[in-house]
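Incident log, support desk, overnight shift.

02:14 A customer reports that sequence design results differ from what the structure should imply. Their input is reproduced verbatim below. On-call engineer (initials T.W.) acknowledged and began investigating.
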């Protein structure tokens, strides 16, 4: 079991190498802990998801659909909006998503 060298110079060399390696491992642990702490702070400071989304066209000029906040069908260009803005968009003829049914959640009855 004893794989250590028997002479003092090689033992001292091994001790030095182990001390340097241990310092490197501790530095890597410290860096990883800092990254994790930063990631956690980012999660804690993230603003809450909006309750309503308005999906826009490619140029961002025309609203395409109204979605509930967590809808996975919201596409690549959704913008968080207020309840009033979502209701106004539906009243203006913007399509309600058929998956999340924001019109039902908003209590909007098509006139």
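02:41 Re-run completed on a clean worker. Output:
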């Amino acid at each position: 079991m004893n794989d250590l060298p028997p002479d003092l110079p090689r033992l001292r060399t091994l001790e030095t190498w182990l001390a340097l390696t241990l310092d490197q491992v501790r530095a890597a642990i410290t860096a990883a802990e800092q990254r994790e702490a930063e990631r956690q702070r980012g999660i804690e400071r993230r603003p809450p998801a909006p309750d309503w989304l308005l999906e826009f066209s490619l140029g961002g000029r025309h609203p395409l659909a109204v979605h509930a906040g967590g809808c996975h069908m919201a596409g690549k260009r959704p913008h968080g909006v207020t309840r009033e803005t979502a209701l106004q968009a539906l009243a203006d003829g913007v399509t309600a998503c058929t998956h999340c049914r924001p019109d039902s959640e908003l209590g909007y009855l098509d006139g």
